[in-house]
Amino acid sequence: ISYTEVGVLNGDTNTMVTDKTEHVLESLLPGRNYSISVQAVSNSVESNAEIAYQATRPSSPVIEDLKPIEYGLNISWKSDVNSRQEKYEVIHLRNDSGKYQNILLPFLSGKERSLILSMITTSDRYRTEEESRWYKLPPVKRTVTEAEVVDLTPGEKYTIQVNTVSFNVESARPLVLNHTVRPNPVTDIAPLVDSTNVTLEFPRPEGRIEYYIINWSPLESNGEEIVQRTRNMTGKGTEGGSVRALVEDLMPGVKYQFDIRTVSYELQSDVTTLSARTMPLILSEILVVNNAHLTDTVTLRYTPTPQASSRFDRYRFSLIGAGDASGKGALIKEKGANETESKVTFNNLTPGRLYNITVWTVADRVLSQPLHRQDRLYPEHITKINATQITDTAITLTWDKPPGEYNAFEVQYLNTEGILIQNLTQEETITINELKPHRNYTFTVVVRSGMEATILRKSLPISAVFITQESIPGKVG
């Protein structure tokens, strides 16, 4: 038996002898075509040769790389250097349909490539503008044309990718779009008003906020042109915390409308609108007028507050007893802002009582800062003095109890030396001693209410003349 590789010049011929009718040829090279000659031999005489041609199976290629590309795979492989082959056959089988296909490629030196088409599904993912980490959504079937992205942060800008996927391999060119979620609006605004500014306090909305846009304009023109003003305020602050926006240089007593929007990536939220009136000013001077002849009446005179300095509708006056902690007994009177008579009178008051007086200007239902005054009415005088007992050196006086409030009675008289003597008593009677016999004495009783530290008022004086008795003969004075 002899064999040699076909097509190789000066190739080696290998010969072997066997007494059997079959033989295994070994150490052949893969992918080669061999010429095999078999002769019968008897007594060293060879018969004519029977020649056959047989090719050995080439070595299997080694796949080096499988790289997904758009609509297919990039396959790279290499072959055994000792193996020869004329072409490559690439076979692929679809897992979903079982469809079989093979592709024949001519032999080329180096690496070979083949494209295998596969079934396509979709893959979606997203990330924020400022983050590098992607958030993946569950894949959807190829028949589904939409996917819902939930739990996005308000005011955040997202980059969203939509990609096709086959057997966990994504395409190289996903569709990309940018989407900004509308920022949350401002809610639960509490206006804190002053005369020339309003502070808008509200909880910081959830999500991303770059800044706030605040617009405001007066709702009452008063014949003037209405001009809308604007300011921007940074949106820094922790979620759940409180935000304060100060709007300044407002007109006292004017009602304003405020519009607030949040902004993120130039996208504005819904507008939140509220109205608030600034506190009016009171620039008046108050003069309390009362006298001893009108013990139950007090008159308040005031200078007008200029309308150019503040808008308001009316003045409000409150009168309440200093000891009335509940405030239920307050007396209220109002005067129009344009009334020419700049005074208000309270009647039927309690004589001798200390009153707290408060004055405001009022714009709609918004009060100015109060002006506080305190004054006491004059107490009511007594009506008559009686002498219940008279001796040569003493006189006991009594009088009626006056209406209203008082602290004490002041009893005055001149002694024989012309010196004014004053006595205080809290009772409606007093005994004056150390008088001279058979003398005329003029006694005056004044009702006192309050003390020097808390405004002292004295009533009109009431007087009476009494004569002491003659002295008993022989009595030592």
From TrEMBL:
<dbReference type="InterPro" id="IPR003961">
    <property type="entry name" value="FN3_dom"/>
</dbReference>
<feature type="domain" description="Fibronectin type-III">
    <location>
        <begin position="182"/>
        <end position="282"/>
    </location>
</feature>
<dbReference type="GO" id="GO:0016020">
    <property type="term" value="C:membrane"/>
</dbReference>
<dbReference type="InterPro" id="IPR036116">
    <property type="entry name" value="FN3_sf"/>
</dbReference>
<dbReference type="InterPro" id="IPR050713">
    <property type="entry name" value="RTP_Phos/Ushers"/>
</dbReference>
<dbReference type="Pfam" id="PF00041">
    <property type="entry name" value="fn3"/>
</dbReference>
<feature type="domain" description="Fibronectin type-III">
    <location>
        <begin position="378"/>
        <end position="471"/>
    </location>
</feature>
<protein>
    <recommendedName>
        <fullName>Fibronectin type-III domain-containing protein</fullName>
    </recommendedName>
</protein>
<dbReference type="InterPro" id="IPR013783">
    <property type="entry name" value="Ig-like_fold"/>
</dbReference>
